[in-house]
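Write out this protein's structure.
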Amino acid sequence: MAKPFYGWVVVWAGFVALAVIFGSSYSFAAFFASFAREFSAQRADVSLVFGLSGLLYFVLGAAAGAIADRVGPRWTAVAGIAVLVGGLVGASHATSLGAVYVYYGIGVGLGVALVYTPTVGAVQPWFERRRGLASGIASAGIGAGTLVGPLMAAALIDAVGWRSGMRTMAAILGVFGIAAALLLEKNPARRGLGPDGGPPLPPVGKAGHSSLGGMTLRETVRSRRFLWLYLATVLAGPVMFTPFAHVSAHARDLGVADARAVALVGLIGIGSLVGRFAIGALADRLGRLRTLVLMMALLGASYGFWYAAPGYTLLAVFAVSFGLCYGGIVSLLPPICMDQFGGRAVSAIIGVLYTGAALGNLLGPVAAGAVFDATGSYVPVMAACALCAAGATWASWRMMRASAAP
């Protein structure tokens, strides 16, 4: 009996690894109120924890990707899981918000960086014809983590308090995360395989195999295609990350109970799961760049539901529709990098691309908190995010045009 194609093992290992790291990152929504009460902090100050974490994992993702391109994704990701677990445990013992910045903000951010880009980069060389589907399945782990992480954290907080809950969560995530990381592998040729389970492709110079050939990192970042894609990522950053920190807080302002408010982040996770599976497969047929343009436009349009929401029902519609677009966009970026620039430095290229989201991940939630603290309203935040989404749609369209040019 023929062995199952190991590429699918990498895909599902990636699913679990990404679920672990983003389950810990987005559990921030459940800990938000506990941090605010424990340290008597305003929303902008607490939001900085999430923003700092995101800034680090996007900025450091480029370095993590370069390390994984050299030493392989397996041990890079194992190190990341260990750092993430240490950050959660350290934060659970924090006696000040400053300590939470260090342990949760920096520790979790560094841990996610060491796992994220090496994992998504490891999936790409195993597939060609079904790359969009494979990447969508792996990145669906982000949606699963977004769904399960905050709900698990909320249940643990109710049962044992936020400090013991965070330590319990760290132990669970550590076991599953390390098990998944040990299964990661990037180069199919090492198992005598090529993309999609075919025969290994012939060697091509220092790149090793043509399945890992393509542009260098230096060549990529100088190309017009990459610059347009990078601009789209920069503009989409605040749009994609502000709701994770603030939609639950807004729901509480409307009188929604804590558990249901936190569940909105879980609904984003459900939408994201559907988006990653469905949009990845759709993009294999429709074209990944064309699908990216569509998803950027719909991402901005989804904010109309948040603006119009008088209560929980329409906020839930926003959460699902936003998650669908967000999940589709995140699942599309790695295969687009592989399509356009090749596998030679794909993890590093993905990491550099993700630095474009870093500023938005930091400033979006923090600025939203500051605007609310000053005005008592999220309406200006929604308008700014819709405008940024329009810009991201335009930049994605320009990237598609540049790709089609001779």
